[in-house]
Specification:
Helix content: 10-25%
Radius of gyration: 27 Å
Structural class: mainly beta
Strand content: 25-35%
Number of helices: 1
Shape: globular
Distance between the termini: 75 Å
Mean pLDDT: 92
Number of strands: 15
Length: 254
Amino acid sequence: MKVFTLLQTVLFFILSPLAFAQNAKEQALPPASATEDWSVKPPLVTPAVYGVPPSDAIVLYRDEKDLDKWQHLNGDPVKWSTTNHELTIVPKTTDIETKQKYGSVQLHIEWKTPDPKEDKSNNRGNSGVFLMGLYELQIYESYNYDTRIYYNGQAGSIYKQQIPLVNASSQPQTWQSFDIVFNAPVFNEDKILKTPGYLTVFHNHVLILNHAEIKGPMVYLGYPSYSYHENKLPLRLQEHSSRVRFRNIWIREL
């Protein structure tokens, strides 16, 4: 009996501090309601379904009625052709841009490269999406690497800057998609760069750029670098002598 009592006493002194510490820890925790945030109620948005943008998106191109949202860089009306809800580049007509200006955005755009026989071997399905008219996400015929081009110039690259994580290109003359999250660069009041731009891109629903840093506006020769610009600028589509087609373009400001 004395041995049992002694064991009880020893266990009491060992376990009591542990129990006390656990109880104190539980008492120190705030109630669940203390971490519940009711300050901002997210607005309701009807999500996108095939061919229909989310309810809060700005439709940039659905059919020819939307051409009045675009212009050539000199302000002329768009000379690209429109058929069956498709917008097709007409070579030698120059780039087009939106009349409205944008900063950080979510952008959905569908595109199709022409028959490779139409284009020269080093210019197959060549076009580009220029965020803010400056930062190019490349469009190109890159299926199966049938067309040779430097990897930071293939479809889905930040042109001459960032190679896509994978090549998710489908065959020529098939519709492809880019779903883009663009974080615009930010400049300080003294017009010095504070934070660079970033791109996250899904090509045909496959992640190909994951918060990839943009090193500056696109340049073909030399190295890119930032210069101060407005916090909102037009979205631009490139005409590069290839009859690339577009459809179902919509955008959401972030």
